[in-house]
Fold these 2 entries.
Entry 1:
Amino acid sequence: MDCAYLFRGRVDRKLMFKFKCNSCGGVYFDPQPDGKRYFHACPDLTNPDFQPVPSLPKLDLRESLPRPNARDERQKPGLQFKDGEYVTVSVDPNDAQKQVVTKVQQITVSEGAGRTLVE
Ligand SMILES: [Zn+2]
C-alpha cells in the first residue's frame, strides 16, 4: 500500500525513505511522517505447534518463537557516543582504575538479512 498521500504536507517526501525488511518482509518509513526515526524490529513468529490448554478453553496465549535471522534496528544497550563515534566502556581487567574504550562497528542489535530501499 502506498501511504504517500498520508504524509503530504507534513514532511518533505524527499526526506522520507521507504524500506522493506529482508528478514520479515515488513515495510516501513524512516524517518516517520512526524520526522522521528523509526527503528524496525522484526516481530516474533507464532508457534505453529501451539496447543491451547484444554482445561482453559477460553485462554489463548499465543506462544511466539524468535524469528530466525531477525532484524532489530534498536541501539545495542550500553553504547556511548564519544568524540563522534559509538564506543563501549568497560573496566580494565588488569587495573580497576582504568577504563577500556572500544570502538563499535555495529550499533544495532542485529542486522538480520538487511533491508532494501523500496522508493
Ligand atoms: Zn523485519
Note: The first strand starts at residue 17 and ends at 21.
Entry 2:
Amino acid sequence: MTLIRLITLSLTQQFGKQELKRTPEPSPITTGIQAVKGYDQALRTKTSLLYIAIIEQIRRLYDRAAAKTAIELCCGPGFLSVFLAEFLGYTEVLGVDLSPTMISAAQANARAAGLTDKITFQEGDVTKLHSIPSHSFDTALFSEAAHHLHDLQMVASVIAEMDRITKPQGLVLISDIARLRTKTLADAYVAYTSNEFLKWGLNAHLEDFKNTIMAVWTPKELVTTIPRKSKRRWVAYTCRCLPFYQIIIGVPEERKEPIFRPIQPDSQNRLLKYLCDIWRRENGEAWTQNTLREWKWFKLLLLQFPKEVPIPKE
Ligand SMILES: C[S@@+](CC[C@H](N)C(=O)[O-])C[C@H]1O[C@@H](n2cnc3c(N)ncnc32)[C@H](O)[C@@H]1O
C-alpha cells in the first residue's frame, strides 16, 4: 500500500461520513470446527497484535499485586485468559463462551500452557450472568465479542453486569474492532488480513472476519452502552489516525488517573517475546520484523497517544 493511499484511507476513517451500515453476525455463536480452528490459529497471525495491546493495557491499568481473579466473557479459544494467568499473575481465571467447540479449544490451550490449576473454562451465555454474585472478580474482560450481540441494548446489559460482578477496586475492559466508515476501507482491511489467513488455509476464518467487520460497532455506538449508574469512571479510546480498534475502560474506583504505569519497553514484554518465538518459527524472520514494526505503530497510536471518544451525557 502506498503512503498516499494509507493517508487517504486514514483521513476517510477519521473524518469521513459513516456510510458502512451494520450487518449483525449471521451466526453469533462460533461452533463450526473450521471457524474455531481459525480462531485457534490466531497467535501465528497479526490478530495476535490485538492480544499484546490488550494485555499491555491491562498491565498498565491494574496493580498486579492486587490482581487475582478475572472473568473473560466470550473467551473463544481462551488465549487472553491464558495470558492473564501466564503474564499478568492472575491466579483464578474463568473463561465463559456459549460454544462447546470453543470451550474445548480453550481447555486444550490452558492444558498446553500448563495452567489448568489457574484457569477454568465454562460453557455459558454472557447475557445471563445474574447467578454470579456482585463484586466477584478483580478484572472483567470482554474482547472482540460485543459485535456478536444482536443489539446495543444487549451489549449495554452485559457491560452493566460486568460492572456489577467486578469489585469496586477492580477493572472492566471491553475491546473490539471498530466499524470502518466505507466499503473501500472495509475491503482494504480484508485485503490486509486475507493473505495470511489463506496461507494457513483459514478460508472459513476469512469469511468469519468479513462478517466481523460488518457487524462491529462504531466507537460512537459502543460508548452509548457504558452504564449510566456506574460508580466507576469510564474512558473510551480508539487508535489515533486510523480508528479501526476501540477500548472502553471501567477504571478502578477512587483511581484519579486511569493509567497506573507506563508502557513497558518491548525488550521487557514477555508476551511479545513469546509471540515473536511463535512468529519466527511459523512465519520466518522477515514477517516477524514487519509485524514488530506494525506493533510499534499500533502501540503508539492505541496505547501511547490514543484518541479519546467522548462519552455522551444522559
Ligand atoms: C470473535 S470470538 C472472540 C474470542 C476472544 N474473546 C478473543 O478475543 O480472542 C467471539 C466469541 O463469542 C462467543 N459468543 C457469542 N455470543 C455469546 C454469548 N451470548 N455468550 C457466550 N459466548 C458468546 C462466540 O462463540 C465466540 O467464541
Note: The mean pLDDT is 93.
